[in-house]
From TrEMBL:
It comes from Ridgeia piscesae (Tubeworm). Residues 1-136 form the SprT-like domain. Signal peptide: none annotated. InterPro entries: SprT-like_domain, SprT_Zn_ribbon. This is SprT-like domain-containing protein. It comes from the Eukaryota.
């Protein structure tokens, strides 16, 4: 049995995959995949993993592909009896999925969440009122402070480029990188 993270699952919290044509119990194998984007808290990981392990138990121990049928419910109740402090194991999650980007209808206010800037606002319109969408920016995010190397590049890129007019951007970055490494080795040794 393997448990892995899946970056492509954007609405499903996880899934349990197994070969349904295996004849003998010793050949049964299960692969559980958890969504990186949906399972973004320890509680969600725990609850989703328990849900998927109930599917695995049905396959390993009962040899049946039962979906969310009576055998899956049996193992879900068994997990709840063994750990009563856990929330009930449900068939579907009701997680509010956190999206990096939000698009809002300019007329009715309907919002669509996306994990990437994938919505073509010139081609897509609101399904309710046919008005265009706009990307909503989050004003609450604090800007990241640049690291030491980024600040070094910002301060020194122009002078290195001026002193070496014929070199490419790649060569300028290589020079800056070696200068930064040399400066840091001097400051850390002295």
């Amino acid at each position: 049995m393997s448990i892995t993270w899946n970056k492509r699952l954007i609405k499903t919290a996880g899934f349990c995959a197994y070969n349904k044509r295996v004849a003998t119990p010793s050949d049964r194998n299960v692969r559980i995949e958890l969504s990186v984007k949906v399972c973004d808290t320890a509680e969600r990981v725990r609850d989703t993993l328990i849900h998927e392990l109930c599917h695995a138990a049905v396959w390993f121990l009962n040899g049946v592909n039962d979906g969310h049928g009576s055998l899956w419910k049996y193992w879900a109740h068994a997990a709840c009896r063994a750990h009563p402090e856990l929330p009930p194991i449900k068939r579907c999650h009701k997680y509010k999925i956190t999206h990096k980007f939000t698009y809002k209808c300019t007329k009715c206010g309907y919002e669509i969440g996306r994990h990437s800037k994938s919505l073509d606002t010139k081609a897509k319109v609101c399904g309710y009122c046919r008005s265009p969408f706009v990307l909503v920016t989050r004003g609450t995010a604090t800007p990241r402070t640049p690291n030491k190397f980024a600040l070094f590049v910002k301060d020194n890129y122009g002078s290195v480029k001026r002193d070496n007019k014929a070199v490419t951007h790649q060569d300028v970055m290589r020079i800056l990188s070696s200068d930064f490494a040399r400066q840091n080795s001097i400051s850390s040794s002295g």
